[in-house]
Amino acid sequence: MDRLSVSQVYLLERYSPGMTTYSAVASVDAVRRACARKSSNGHAVRLMWSLVMPDDEALFLVIEAPDRDLIAGVCAEAGLTYDRATPALAVGDGTPC
Q1: pTM of the shown model
Q2: How many whole angstroms separate alpha carbon 13 and alpha carbon 41?
Q3: Which fold has domain 11-92?
């Protein structure tokens, strides 16, 4: 078995009536840029992946960070509101499936 890593992440859920693919992608990009700025300032934060569900007007983000306060700061900087942030563990070997 290959060695697996475990990291603290948060699953962010955003449900927004009227959300379009364009607006969701713009939100993801804003969060990505906010994570990069925080990271360059010494904070351990990284956008791991996102999932846009246009038919359900939903956006899901998985952000690696040590605590919820850092997630809140990233989202505030990105101008993104979210409905829920659930702590979780990401498990993987660093390679895509």
Answers
A1: 0.88
A2: 26
A3: Alpha-Beta Plaits (3.30.70)
